[in-house]
C-alpha cells in the first residue's frame, strides 16, 4: 500500500472535444486520456456534460462514458463536473451512478449544477427560470436515493445499493450565496476555471466564495473544494500559445456574444479572462504560487478547455502536469485506489 499525505488531490477535466466530425475518434481519444491519467497517478478524472453540441464534440451521456472508463482503468476516481441536474430524473440518475460505482469498485464522484443553456432546457421541457429551484429539489431526491432511502413511493429503493456518497457529492456554483448554499446542504464545492461577468481576475472573484463556503460549513467531515483551472504546460510560453492561443481567443469572442465577456477582446485579454496558466512547467508553478484560491483547494482539477489541442499534445501536457507541475506544488502521484475523503 502507498502511504501519502499530499496537499491536494490532482484531477483532470475533459469536455470531450476534438476537431472535425469524427466524434467516435474524439470519444476514443477522451477515453485514452483517462487511461493515461490513471497510469500517471492522477487521483480523479472528470467529464463535463453538454446536451448541445460543442465545436468538435461534447458529451451528453457522461455515465455511459464513465462506465467504459471504469473498465479501462484500475485506480483513478471517476466524476462529473458537472451533470446538469435540472434536466435529469434524480432517481434514474442515482441508478446510473450506483451502477458505475459498483462496476468501478466505489470510484465515483458526482458533481452537479444547474447548467446555463436555454436550448438544453427547452429540449428537455424545463423552465430555465426555475433552474436553481429544480437543482435544489432534484439534489434532495438524488441524495436520498444514493443513501438507499425509500424514494417517491413506499418500498422503492434504487438498485444496485449505492455505496456511501456522504462525501462524494459536489456542487458547481458561480456566486457567494451559491457557495453558502452548497455548504448548507453538505455538498463539496466546485469552482469553474473562469468567473464570468467580472473584470477582476478569476481568483480574486472566487476567493470570497471559497471563504464563504468554509465559513458556512457545519458538517463533521472535512470541507472539500475542487478548483478547476486551465493548465497547459509546454516547452515554453511561445510553444504553448501555438497550441492554445487561437482557440482561447475564439472562445472568448463567442462568449462575448452572450455577455459573459466584453466584446472585442484581444488575445492576451482572452487568456486573462479564462484565467489561463500556460508556458513552461516552471512558469506555471510560479504563477500558481500566487493563485488566491489554490491554498484552500483540496482538489486541483486541470483542464484545457476551451483549447482543443491534438491528442498527442494533450497527452504530453498531462504528463508534464503529473511529473513537473503538480509535484512542485506538493502533490504526490497515487499508485493505489484513492479513497473519497483523501
Automatic annotation (TrEMBL):
This is Luciferase. One of its GO terms (cellular component) is cytosol. It comes from Streptomyces aurantiacus. Residues 12-253 form the Luciferase-like domain. GO terms for molecular function: oxidoreductase activity, acting on paired donors, with incorporation or reduction of molecular oxygen. It holds the Pfam family Bac_luciferase.
